[in-house]
Amino acid sequence: MTLLNLTVFPRPQARLMNDGTAGHRLLAWNVPPSELIHIPEHWLNYPEPEASMHFLLGLIYIAFFLMAILGNGLVLWIFSFAKSLRTPSNMFVVNLAFCDFMMMIKTPIFIYNSFQRGFALGFTGCQIFAFLGSLSGIGASTTNACIAYDRYTTIAKPFDGKLTRTKALVMLICVWMYTIPWAVLPLLEVWGKFAPEGYLTACTFDYLTNTFDNHMFVAVLFFFSYCFPMTFIIYYYSQIVSKVFSHEKALREQAKKMNVESLRSNQNQNSQSAEVRIAKAAITICFLFVASWTPYAVLALIGAFGDQSLLTPGVTMIPALTCKLVACIDPYVYAISHPKYRLELQKRLPWLAIKESAPSDTQSVATESTAPAAT
């Protein structure tokens, strides 16, 4: 009769490469057998990366974390408490900063896993990481679509009515009603699921399981969280560019007929300059969003419908880095391009040495109403 020794805890068996190379371990070599079932089999065939790669990624994520928490924290603070910035349009800016902030508060999980060289926090840590990532990523995409719509109505259709707080609040409620199901369904494994990827230090939607339900989930998620908001973003900003060019062309033609250099007064030029700077900031942020999330969307499609051998652990860590990078850059784009935000920073944090001239009352009113220059 064999007795079970309860004082001996089960330890994970080191998974070694079977190619005859001594000392080379496979990914998940230090994962307990009870946790291996949560890791897609695709990753279990790759060798463990060098420890320096884990440590390098951990250090990069520490820098991302500090940069994003500082930048987005300032945006949340300034835009929420500065009276001049508490406008309906800026409610979307605050929501985007909140999404970016949420994106980065999960990075300590990645950092810990990296310095432990693998799936250290297990299934629970993976679920928390992926859940926060899906909420923040999809929330940011739909918020960017709302910002594009707001800029379009403000610049291209200024006489159709200003955005009210009630309308902005309703739009934000719709954003989160749209976002939350895409994070809850895979969390509860009702449709899709979360799984580790790459070096097993990060987690996201499972795009590798070859089942019809999982393929359908990836396809639907790709359309509704990427293609759908991206269509609105591209449409509204293309309309803004078209309207601005048409308006400027009409002004030049009219000025030529009247034999004057310009039809704009200094006040209108200043107010238009402020609006253009805000629009440039919004366009830059949306461009960054497109540039950072497109690689991840392509990666998911390859995993679900393409050649999975292209998705090595190292390759899949690159889109993960770009997604985190945009959450770090967004607040600094506003710091550079948003005149009223810069002015508030100058008032509240003078040691930053930001030099932004305060607009006159007339100019402020003109900027808020964004009425086009009279022709």
Automatic annotation (TrEMBL):
<keyword id="KW-0325">Glycoprotein</keyword>
<protein>
    <submittedName>
        <fullName>Ultraviolet sensitive opsin</fullName>
    </submittedName>
</protein>
<keyword id="KW-0716">Sensory transduction</keyword>
<comment type="similarity">
    <text>Belongs to the G-protein coupled receptor 1 family.</text>
</comment>
<dbReference type="InterPro" id="IPR050125">
    <property type="entry name" value="GPCR_opsins"/>
</dbReference>
<dbReference type="InterPro" id="IPR027430">
    <property type="entry name" value="Retinal_BS"/>
</dbReference>
<dbReference type="GO" id="GO:0007601">
    <property type="term" value="P:visual perception"/>
</dbReference>
<dbReference type="InterPro" id="IPR001760">
    <property type="entry name" value="Opsin"/>
</dbReference>
<feature type="domain" description="G-protein coupled receptors family 1 profile">
    <location>
        <begin position="71"/>
        <end position="334"/>
    </location>
</feature>
<feature type="transmembrane region" description="Helical">
    <location>
        <begin position="281"/>
        <end position="305"/>
    </location>
</feature>
<keyword id="KW-0844">Vision</keyword>
<dbReference type="InterPro" id="IPR000276">
    <property type="entry name" value="GPCR_Rhodpsn"/>
</dbReference>
<dbReference type="InterPro" id="IPR017452">
    <property type="entry name" value="GPCR_Rhodpsn_7TM"/>
</dbReference>
<feature type="transmembrane region" description="Helical">
    <location>
        <begin position="216"/>
        <end position="237"/>
    </location>
</feature>
<feature type="transmembrane region" description="Helical">
    <location>
        <begin position="168"/>
        <end position="188"/>
    </location>
</feature>
<feature type="transmembrane region" description="Helical">
    <location>
        <begin position="317"/>
        <end position="337"/>
    </location>
</feature>
<dbReference type="GO" id="GO:0016020">
    <property type="term" value="C:membrane"/>
</dbReference>
<keyword id="KW-1015">Disulfide bond</keyword>
<dbReference type="GO" id="GO:0004930">
    <property type="term" value="F:G protein-coupled receptor activity"/>
</dbReference>
<keyword id="KW-0472">Membrane</keyword>
<keyword id="KW-0297">G-protein coupled receptor</keyword>
<keyword id="KW-0812">Transmembrane</keyword>
<feature type="transmembrane region" description="Helical">
    <location>
        <begin position="91"/>
        <end position="112"/>
    </location>
</feature>
<keyword id="KW-0675">Receptor</keyword>
<keyword id="KW-0157">Chromophore</keyword>
<dbReference type="Pfam" id="PF00001">
    <property type="entry name" value="7tm_1"/>
</dbReference>
<keyword id="KW-0807">Transducer</keyword>
<dbReference type="GO" id="GO:0009881">
    <property type="term" value="F:photoreceptor activity"/>
</dbReference>
<keyword id="KW-0681">Retinal protein</keyword>
<keyword id="KW-0600">Photoreceptor protein</keyword>
<keyword id="KW-1133">Transmembrane helix</keyword>
<feature type="transmembrane region" description="Helical">
    <location>
        <begin position="55"/>
        <end position="79"/>
    </location>
</feature>
<dbReference type="GO" id="GO:0007602">
    <property type="term" value="P:phototransduction"/>
</dbReference>
<feature type="transmembrane region" description="Helical">
    <location>
        <begin position="118"/>
        <end position="147"/>
    </location>
</feature>
